[in-house]
Structures are given as structure tokens and as C-alpha cells.
Task: structure prediction
Amino acid sequence: MEVDSQKLQRKQSIYLSFDENFEIQKEVYRGQQYSQIYFARLHMMRTLLYSLVPNWKPHIPVCKVLGLELGKVCIVVGTLYKHMKLKPCILDEYSKERSATPLVKPHNFMHQDDYLVLEDESGRVKLSSAILSPSVYVTGVVVALLGKETSAGDFFVEDVLEAGLPPQIEQPLKSREDKYVVFVSGLSVGSSSSNPLQFQLLVDHITGHLGDEEEQGLAAEIAHLVIAGNSIEISSGLLNRQNLASTDQSRLSDPIKELDILLTQIAASLPLDIMPGSNDPANFSLPQQPLNRCLFPGSAIYNTFRSCTNPHCFEIDNMRFLGTSGQNIDDLTKYSEAKDKLDFLERTLRWRHLAPTAPNTLGCYPFTDRDPFLIDSCPHVYFVGNQEKYETRLLKGSEGQLVRLICIPRFSETGVAVVLNMRNLECHALSFGTQFS
Amino acid sequence: MNKGGNPRKRPPPPSQNQPSPATKHQATGEAPPPTPMEEDFVDEDVFLEETLMGEEDVESLILRDIEQRQALTSRLSKWARPPLSDAYTSQSCSISFQQLEIDYVIGESNKSLMPDSSGPAAIIRIFGVTREGHSVCCLVHGFEPYFYISCPPGMGPDDISRFHQTLEGRMKETNRNSKVPKLVRRIELVQKRSIMYYQKQESQPFLKIVVALPTMVASCRSILDRGIQIDGLGMKSFMTYESNVLFALRFMIDCNIVGGNWIEIPAGKYKKAVKNLSYCQLEFDCLFSDLISHAPEGDFSKMAPFRILSFDIECAGRKGHFPEPTHDPVIQVANLVTLQGEDQPFIRNVMTLKSCSPIVGVDVMSFDTEKEVLLAWREFIREVDPDIIIGYNICKFDLPYLIERAQTLGVAEFPILGRIRNSRVRVKDTTFSSRQLGTRESKEVTVEGRVQFDLLQAVQRDYKLSSYSLNSVSAHFLSEQKEDVHHSIISDLQNGNAETRRRLAVYCLKDAYLPQRLLDKLMFIYNYVEMARVTGVPISFLLSRGQSIKVLSQLLRKSKEKNLVIPNVKQSGSEQGTYEGATVLEAKAGFYEKPIATLDFASLYPSIMMAYNLCYCTLVTPEDVRKLNLPPESVNKTPSGDTFVKPSLQKGILPEILEELIAARKRAKADLKEAKDPLEKAVLDGRQLALKISANSVYGFTGATVGQLPCLEISSSVTSYGRQMIEHTKKLVEDKFKMQGGYEFNAEVIYGDTDSVMVQFGVSDVEAAMNLGREAAEHISGTFTKPIKLEFEKVYYPYLLISKKRYAGLYWTNPKKFDKMDTKGIETVRRDNCLLVKNLVNECLHKILIDRDTNGAVEYVKNTISDLLMNRMDLSLLVITKGLTKTGDDYEVKAAHVELAERMRKRDPATAPNVGDRVPYVIIKAAKGAKAYERSEDPIYVLENNIPIDPHYYLENQISKPLLRIFEPILKNARSELLHGNHTRSISISTPSSGGIMRFAKKHLTCIGCKALISNTDQTLCSHCKGREAELYNKTVSQVSELEELFGRLWTQCQECQGSLHQDVLCTSRDCPIFYRRKKAQKDMVEAKRQLDRWNF
Result:
């Protein structure tokens, strides 16, 4: 093969990690409960909302849930709690009255009788309203409500104030050349649906081993790869057994080895961030801690290999990225409704909270003095992994914020990775197929 | 508490001390329904002036702090009842109201209504509510207590007046202190007939003795019982008739009033009281003859909007003691008032001692002293004027506690809680013993004019549950866990600040709301009012008295119609009280994989009584059989050898009552189908239920040897007919449905009990079995006397018959789909079983019957046993709970929970269980030979110290019996297969973290992979295991992951129950199934995290 005289140079970038917030270092389980994270969340959000209230509704008194008086119009800030009839409950395991009636559809627990309750540290009040739809909100969101107490003891809501998009750091200069970040999720190495060839094609493409010069030239402009969760799939049955037979031992470690080999190929040519997901060998509750380096003896020795937390926050060339492996949005789809997944993403930004349903229905570490999921700075790119299909939208905030929202599909099922151009925040899908018709 | 018996127990009749006549019934299986230990019905005269406080005293007491009260009064006054309309105030309209409570009081006879009489007399008080919600107190005059004796032959009018004088003289001797001028008002000669035995003559002369006051009935009766000197006849003792009827009930019967019905007094027939005696809006006097009692039909079947108060109190107990009114203050009282028929309370408030932060939708009233709290509550009761007071265990705890506390504090004006002005509530001392709270001296509180409805008593009466704590009852019926705050925490919350007291108030309110919700959910108001209407007794009797008064009331009403009188039989409780119970056909145990059709007798015992005209008044005594020479075609000789006449000679009263009850039930059920309005439906459903229960209790009444009117000839005849019918059915089925008869298979009766027969027709198709069942039912019904009827109702398929009264099967009523899984006798509601047993049995039955996967069931059992032996079992499944009823010294035999309570007291007296608490424990591994009671341990202590449990105890003493019961009919060698198989070979036991041998142990780090010791503390694995890093890490992390998920689900559930996100969970309800898991998850999490952290090198 003729060697090309002009060597392609891979684009470089400046990378900064902001994962510190999601790392659990000194925190230990000391018998603390979940009330403290709610308390911290309410405290932070209230300060923020109080600062917005004078512009929203000037001259209306602000009070706590306890201070409500019958018929008096006022503003209350509190955490929403959604009472859900169909919400699964661990106690049901005990009162097992086996019935022949089919169980509810497992993907959504909404019911028309659901209602919202507002709670602060002083108390609770049931909300009644035409404008505050229980199907939109979930437990754990902090909002300011304008309304009055009715004779039935409810709080009749007339208006709602959400915190809105957080302020954004100034966009980096626009005049630069194309530079790409690739997102992929749900590689599911080891599962029946994963196709090793498909993944190999992806690796070859981004490392520049595929296609003609033009294609290689494009590949060289990829500056970074983000793997957003669920890279490995291990059958859960294997782990529950007391003693593993040696054949099972290999069934358990083979997918990890396979992934390590492929990651080594990538790490050798460009920087990659790998986030844990719900199926990965990582802890369950959010924030998930980085996958242990001992799982990746090959790739972990490269300094381009970064094992990150989930959620994951970082900057590339001063552009801020924030994303999760999908659990926060999946949980919202179970407990609320929206026209598409991107709506959920948008809502979490406007609520300034990555995962409002944690800890209520989404497992989370019982933090004592902070809520790491609050979003205080608006990202330029906000992504979630492991969704059914690729979706994207550009969100414009009231203060000029510009956010690229991305749903990354599961690669093992769709063969799609997502490419983002950092120059203009444009985005396209990268599809790999191994079937020829 | 005091299950089945009567809480108002007076000294028991002597017969109770004799050997129980019930033993033989139990041997044969079916004992008559529980009606033992009925009290003797005794009236108690309450003299009006004695209960009232001096008018001046009260005025001064009330005046004293009137200013402080004004603020409160205005706060409460908005809840007063709606004001009276003009028509009421001008007395121009008739007053009709639903009565809830009827009692009487002794006062001066009303001069204006009855100009002829004077002196003290009984005044009936009827309390009720009008349609508009006005409270009514109707004072009825002129009704006099009376009873009958049979008139000695040849007694003329002169003899009667002489007899009257003698009796009056004797009465004066026994009632020396009475101010009544004439004790025996008059004696009338009447024509009546005794209900007992068939008699040819229509009637006989009886003397109706009318006395001045209700209590004199009893004293007069005892004089006549003992014997009285009569000129010309000498010393003679009399049998009395209807002398044991309570005065209020007598009045209701004679005026045709049934419990909870509507009463009308036409305009002009009542007089407004000159001076109001009660707090009721409408108080008036009238004559008993002017009352119009409406039958509960049409508009009069509705319920008035009565006010139901549900309340709960909290007391600050001292550490380690159950609260006592002499020491511990009442700190909060929460109240909810609901109008009957509404689904939300219209008043919610809480009265607290010391400040309390506000609660949304609740009126919080805080006071500085306990006295003010108590007085505020009294004020509240008076202002809101509830008709029914409900709560959980209020009769035994809350109400007596408040009153005794007021006494201790010297708040003399507190106990005016009833509807009578300035009348204190009456407190009676009673002793009661219960499994939950032990034997305790207690008080019984009578609140005049208000019905007390204790949900605890009601639930205990009507439902068989494994535990009656408010927590488990609400978990059972409302399917939600109640937050339980341990009483040692209550004092801490009270001594905190306004916020912590608010926390307590929220808890207290929840406890006050649960009884209301139970009341609604279980339709108690409808069911009890309908029961009162059907049986004709006041509502308050239903909870406070036994079964028999309900039947007696119906019997008295019917007898009155027929001009019969009921003798007051002296309770003899002799050996005559044995008779054979129902029959149970031999159960052919096995697992039946072909459909089993079940043929049921519809209300068998009532049908038998109707079919064979069994009654007191149709029974012919053996002498009469000889003497009367009745034609054989007009009598029935029952299989037990007694003779009853047929309806052609004399129609029985009991059959007539039963016919009416059954016809009324049919009507109610038909109306129920038509009804659209949910409230009307509730009434009708309550009615049909009440009618069914009433019809079934008649048989028990005749068999209750210590009851009001036992007649074993009737009850033994009933059961003998029942036995005959079961045998007859079996024979008929097996004779008809056989191959010779042209059927496909030979039918076989595999089992039969009291009123049903199980038949295997041999067909393997459900539909075919149903058709044969129907055919058999029709064929056999034709051979019985009407209305006895055999019905085909259901098919069991498959059917697991274990032994008599123990079976399980899928229940089919249509051939397409089974309705449910039905089990009898094996459901493990026994409270001294651990949850594991229940889960295991349920799961196995599910697998065997529904999944038809016996191997799967066996596999499941093996896995569970292996989990148990390998120490992988969730501890909460192993907890056994028992109530501590008395202290250790009082128990004769050493019991595990008592010993544990003693040990816990030594560890920490503050948190140790007290008498009345429930003690949860697990059985731990201990030295060989240690007794079971020494091996009990607190589950929390076990969790904290990693104490190994004893899997063999659970295997042998808990799960083996129920399991073998199920599997023995299915598996050949169930015992060796299930309990001694391969899966029982590996065992794992946790090492205790302290104590014992661990004090001498030295801790070393070991390799996570192979447990080899490693010296370098930075390492996780030994050099040998290094290559398995990924695999071993995977395992550790998946453990952490599972625990994290569990941790999150458990603790958020507790937040959910608690109803708050921002406050820490305090609940320590040991009845809650996740309590131990929550605790364990928290602890395991720490350990798992430490393991995981070892990987971060």
C-alpha cells in the first residue's frame, strides 16, 4: 500500500473533568436517612427561587406551608410529592395476595387519580389546580407556587414558578474549525443482541482504520469519545451463585476482556470517557462511581482512558458537557409523561435538577450536606445514554443559553452512535450496519 | 381483648364453674356457635338527682375561668349543630328522628302528662337525630316495668288483692330505703300461654305484676322464686315469666321499636320541657302511647346525618412503664368529626399540651396546662355534640384514662361528657383479662346519650385476625402500614419544641383518623344499624352484649304477637348439656387431579328447624307423648328421639322467625340488585348480612346451655337431622351416579362436613363435573322436606385434601376460569408462626394448584431450606411475635418471649417490652441442650451482633409440619425428600461480632477470593487469586449494588408511610414486615461498602 505523504493529525483538545461533585470519597453509611438530601435540595433551591420571586410576582407575601391562611393569596416554595396509586411498593411483596388480575403495564405507573402535594420542612399541603398537571411533575421537584388555601384544606394553585435554565458560561469562540465528539451507549458486550462486528466497525471508524482518505480525514477530527453506560452485560444469574464453576468464571470475565481489548484500540488513538450504567459492574445508586480500573488491565494504562462517574460533567475546549447513562430519564418516563424524551431532558434543566426522582424511586446515595444533582451551571451539551432512538434538539434559554440535547440510542440494538460538531453544536447520527440486502 | 366473651362481665352464674358441657361437641367436630357465658340481664336504676352535680357548684366552676374560655368557645361554636327552624321552636310540627340510644332514668312522674300518678317513676330517654341534623332527647313517660307469673288455680279477684298486699309487704322489707309509696303498682289477671312445650289448650290465667321501678322486677322475682305465703295455699314459689327482660328492651318491644329506627311524635302530643335537662336541641316530654314507630322501610330506612367523633389521646409515659393515669399526663387529644354519609371529616382538630406548630387543614389548639386540655376537650364534646364516639380501644383505654386523669388532677367538672346537663359520666370498675394487655382493673364509662363504638371490639367480634393492633388491622383492611411511634419516644417528642410536638400531633391525628376509615371501609355503621333493626335491640347492645339477647329480643317480639310468655328458666347448666354435634364424613386424603363437585346445603340448620317445625312450643314432653295420644301423622320424631308436632297442630315460633328472616333477606337481596344509590346499597347489603347472621344464630341460642332459654331437645334434633342428611346424600350420590346407572364413572364421596359434601364424579372436565353436580343437587333436593335444599355451587379442581377441615383447591364457579384459590385449615394465620411459614405454604400451594408444577414446588422448598441453612434468609421472615401478658413470675411454664423480656430488661430497662407489649424474637444457636426458651433473642440485637440463628429450630419446629401436611398426599416419602435431602448438607453460620469465643480471636485480613490470610493490608487478593480480579470484583460490586437498591426502596417506603420527605423516619413498628430488613440493609450496607473500598488501591 502506498503511504500517504501527508499524514493525518488527530485533533487535540483541552479536557477538564468536573466529576468531583459526583464522587463519593469520605461519605460513609452511618445510619443517615434520605431526609437530609431533600433538606439540602430544598434549602438550595429555595434560596434561588426566593431571588426570582420579586420579579415574578412582586408584592405577594411568601410563606411556608404552615403559614398558609384560608383564602389568603401567597407564594410557597416546597418540594413536590406525587401521590401515585399504582406506584410499586416493597410492602406488596409481603401482602402477596396472588390474584388472577394482570399487573399494570410495567413501563408507566401513572393513574388519573394521582395528585400532587407540596411539602416543606414544616408540613404538607394537598394541591388542587388546573394548571399544575400531576402528569408533568414528579416527586422531588422544588417549585414556587402562587395560590391560596381552600376551605377543604387544599392549596389552590394559580401559577407555578420553576427555577428555569441555569446561567451558562459564555460560549467559546465560534470561528474555529470542525472538531467532533462521538457519543455511544449500550454497547452491551456479552449480550445476545450485541454484534461484535458492529462494534469493531465503530472502533475502526473512529480510530481511522476505515474508509478512504476523506473518511479518515473526518475521523481525524474526532477529538473525544464518550461511552455513556451499559458497556457490558453479565447475566445476573451468574453472580448470585455461591460458587462458580470454572466455565462460568470465564463466562463472567470474557465480556469484560473483550471490551478491554476494544477499548485498548480506542485509547491508543484518542481520549475516551467511560461511564458506568445500570447494567455495568458498578454500584447501583446514583451517582455511580467510576468502573474499577482492575476491570480494564489493558486500556487502563493509557492516559487517554478515563473511567468516570455517572452522571458525568466535563469541559472540552471550554465547552461544558453534562450527561447520564439514562437512569434519571428512564425513571421520569415511568412516573410522568411527555411528548418525547427530549422534553424530559428539558424539564430536568428547567427544574435545575438532574434526577429529581432520586431518592424516591431512583436509587441514590444518602448525602448528608449536599445534593450533587442540582445543576448550577447550564451545560452546552446535555446527553443521556441508553434510549430507544436517537433524538436531538437545540434548546434556547430565556437568557440566551443554548443547549444541545441528545438522546443516545443503545448501540447494540440500533448500531447508531452520535457525532457532535463542537464548532456549531450540530449533531448527526453515525450508523453502522453489518447486514447487506 | 376478652375475645368472644362479654366485657361487662358480672359475677358469673354458678353453672360456669361446672365442667364445660361443650367438651363433647368438640370431639365430634362442630360445636354450636360461641354463646357461652351470657350475662344475666339486670337493670340498674339510675336516679336522676344523684348523678347531677349541684347546680351552684357547676355554675361557679364554669364562671371561675369563663374569660379564658371565651376565646375557645367562639372557636368551637362554629361547629354547633344547625339552628332550629321556626316550625320546631313553635312546636307546630311533628318531630321524627332516628333513635340511636334508649335508656331510662328514675325521676318524678310528670304531673302534666299523668295527673294521676306521683312519686318516682322510670322515665325512658330516647336520644336521636332528626333528618336536618338536630339532636333530640325524647322523655317518655308512663311506661311501667312488669312481668308475669302463672296464676295458681282457683285464684279469684279477692285472692289476688290479698296476694298483692302480701307481696307489697315482702317487697317493703327488701326495699327498705325506697321512697316509693307503692312498690307493687298493681296485679292484673291475664290470659297467656307459656312458650314451653306443646299444649292443647289455647291459654291459661297468668298474673301480670306491675312494679314501680325497673330494679324491683328483680327483687320481686327473687321473692317469688324463694316462695311466698299465700292464704289457703301455704308457702308457694312461683315460676316467673319475662322477668329478665331489660327495661329499655321491654319498652322497645311493647312499642314496636327496633334499634336505630325512626320515631315520630305528632304535633301537640309532646310538650317542650320547662327546664332542659339535656344539651339536646329538641327536648320534650310525651306519653309512651303517643309514639309512632316507623318500620325501617322506604324513606325510613335511611340514616340521619349523625355526628361521629373519632378520637385518640397520647400520654407521656415514663420510660419503661405503660402510661398510668395516676402518674402520666395526657398530652394530646386529636379529634375528627364526620357526618354520617359523608366521606370526609368536617372537623379536624388536635388539642395539645404546650405549643405546637400549625398543621394544614387542622385546627391546632395549644394549652399550657393539662387541665385546660381536658376542659377544652369536654367543651368540644359539648359543643359538637357527637352522637357516636368511636376510636380504637377507647372503651378500655382512652375514655377511662381521661376520666381517671381528671380525677387525679382534681378537675371535678371534667366528666360531664354526656348529653344530660351537669350529669357526670358513670364509671364502673370492671376487671378484664386479655391476651394483649393482660389482666387489668379497668373502668367502664357510660356516656349518657352517646353511643360508644370501639373499633377494636367490633373488629375482634367480626374478624379472625392474627393480631389486633391498630397497625395490623389497618394493614389488613386498608392495606397500608401505620407509622408506629414507640411510647418511649413520645415523651421525648413532647419534651422537645413546637416542631416535635407537631410531629406527635400529626401521628395522633392519623391514629384518630384510622378508626373512622375502618368504620367506613368495613361498613360498620350500616351493618350494625341494620343488625339492630333486624334483631330489635339498641345499637349499644350489639357491642356490649352477647349474641343471645339478639335472638331473645326477636323471640319476645314474636311471642307477644302470639300471646305467649317466656319463662325465666333458672340456669342449671347440668349434664343435660351434652349432645352430639355435626357429623364429618371421613376425609379420603389425597391430591385429586380430577374436578371435585361440592354440594352444599343452603343454610342447613335454619332449614331443618323450618322443615321439621322445631320450636319450644312444638316440643312434646315424653309424658305428654304418652298422655296426649297425638296421631302419628301430625308429629315428627327426630333422629335424636324427641317429638315435635307438625305445623298443622301448632306452628312453631322459631320457624316463623326464621321464615321471616329468610324472606326478608331475599327481599333485601332483590332490592340490592335494583338499588342504584350507593348509600341505599350499603343499607341493603348491611341488612341482608344482618339477616343471614341472625338466621344462623337461632340454632346457637337453643343450644347455649347457660343462655337465656336453652332447649337441647331442639339443638340436638337439629344436628341429628343434619347428620342424617349428610349420610343420606352420600348414599344417594354413590347409588345413583355409577356405571350400572349409565354413568361414565362411579361417583365417590371423598369428604363431607357440617353442610357440604364433596363428590368426585370421575369426569376430568370441569364443565361435565358441574353438570353432574347440578343434576345430583336437584335429584337429592327432591328427596328432602322443604325448604331443605341441596345446592351445587362450585367445583374444586385440582383439590388437595389433607384431613378433615384442612384442604386447598382452585375454586371454579364457571367452566372457563377459576375464581380463586380456596384454602381451609392450612392458611397460616396462627400468630406464633413466623412469616417464612406463611410465604412458603402460600408459594407451594400456588405452584401445586395453579402452576400444576409439583416439582417446582419441591424445588422451591429445597431452595428455601437451603437458604435457611446457608444463612441467606431475610431475618424478618424468621421473627416470631408473642404478646407479653404478665410478668415472668406469673407464668407457670417458662416461655421464650417472657424470658427474653426479662433479659432485655436487664440490658436496658427503658426499651424493654412491658406487659401489654408484643415481643418479637428469633431463636438463636446456643450451647447443646439449651432449652428453646433460653434461645430466644431480640432480632435487633441479633442483627447488631451477628448472632447466628438456629436453622434447625425453624426447620423442625416451624416449617416441617405445615410442609409435610401439604406434601404427604402428593409425595411418597415427603419427609426424607424435603427435609433430609442433598440440599440440607451445606450449612453456613455467621460469626458473632462480640462475646463468647470472639473475645479470644484475632482479626486478620483475608483474600476475598479464597480466604487465605494476607499480610499486606493494601491488598485485596492473594497472589494466587490475582488473575480472577475482574470476576471477584464483579461479585463484590454486584452485592453492593443489590444492597443499595434494597436500601433505597426500603427507606423511601418508610418515608412514604410517614408522609414526609424532609423529616427523619422515627417509626419502630415491629409489626411492619420491613422493619428488620430496613435495619439490616443499613447495617449490611456499611460492611459491603467496606469490602468494596478494599478494591480501591
In short: The domain at 15-26+168-236+247-431 of chain A is CATH 3.60.21.50 (Purple Acid Phosphatase; chain A, domain 2). The helical segments of chain A are 35-56, 196-206, 213-220, 236-240, 246-267, 327-335, 341-350, 411-414.
